Amino acid sequence: MRVPMIAGNWKMYRTAREAAQTIRTLRGLVGEVTDVDVVVCPPFTALPAALEAASDSRIGIGAQDCHWGKEGAYTGEVAVPMLADLGCSHVIVGHSERRQFFGETDATVDRKIEAVLAHGLTCIGCLGETLQEREAGQTLQVLERQLRGGFARHLHSPRLVIAYEPVWAIGTGRTATPAQAQEAHAFLRGLVAAVADPDVAAAIRILYGGSVKPENIVALMAQPDMDGALVGGASLDPSSFARIVKFRG
Ligand code: PEP
User: Fold this and answer.
1) Where do the DSSP E strands lie in the chain?
2) How do residues 18-61 score in pLDDT, each as one tens digit?
3) What is the pLDDT of residue 1?
């Protein structure tokens, strides 16, 4: 039985004070939800305030990226042990904005996932095709390359969560249809069965991300291979995010 996860990616929005306020409001709205894993990923600078605001609640706090090393001469980077020391429980890795703007590759995704899992945190690893790749009929090939290149060595970890995020649906208001999302999720689950084994495939959670809103979450979650969502824009508003978390009604 896969417990759904609804994770919010706040990207480069919210100061520490704003983050604390938003999480306090969110606690009031989702405090009684026990059948969904709720995670919020603010910017690095807001993590301590977010952690304090979420303390003694079921809301997990995560980072949006990390470095793969334990420490070292990597100006501007943040290591997983530093996130663990703060109390973070999750890290997003391989988001398409990291791939597009900051040179993230399948090889760096592989190293970052390894580091997150090695330090006991849950990793939300992202993959997904661009519009150009979809229109060229290459979606499944791209997903296979990304999964084999970045995720394959880590699939046996129960703390690895896959987030399928078609790049053309992120921040565009254009959501994949439930059928398009299901096709990709079923393909990924089949691939996990082939690369790891069928038990791993049955247990691994695959989230969808790309313009998820209260209005489309129910239809997406009705798909058999849908185990939750990674939510960008709509996660910044606690009442929208809470409605997504409470997709069961
Ligand atoms: C994201 O940032 O991972 C995302 C899915 O963004 P949005 O929901 O705004 O499309």
Assistant:
1) 5-9, 37-41, 59-63, 90-93, 122-127, 160-164, 205-209, 228-231
2) 999 999 999 999 989 999 999 999 999 999 999 999 999 999 99
3) 84
Q: What is the DSSP string of 10-65?
A: -TT---HHHHHHHHHHHHHHHTT--SSEEEEE--GGGHHHHHHHHTTSSEEEEES-
Q: What is the mean pLDDT of each run of 10 residues along the chain (249 residues)?
A: 96 98 98 96 98 97 98 98 98 98 98 98 98 97 98 98 97 92 98 98 98 97 98 98 96
- Please state the domain count of the chain: 1
Which residues form ligand 1's pocket by a CB distance below 6 Å? 9, 11, 165, 170-171, 209-212, 230-234
Q: Which residue, by CA, sits nearest to atom 1 of ligand 1?
A: 232
For residue 162, report the distance from its CA to the centre of ligand 1, in Å: 15
Instruction: Name the phi and psi angles at 220, rounded to 5.
Output: -65, -45
- Domain of 184: which CATH number? 3.20.20.70
Q: Which two structure tokens, joined as six digits, stand for 1?
A: 């039985």
Q: How far apart, in whole angstroms, are the C-alpha atoms of residue 117 and residue 154?
A: 8
Q: Model pTM?
A: 0.98
pLDDT tens for residues 14-25? 999 999 999 999
Range of the domain at 169: 5-245
Centroid of ligand 1 to alpha carbon of 13 (angstroms): 13
Any residues with CB less than 8 A from the CB of 136 and at least 6 apart, and which?
Answer: none
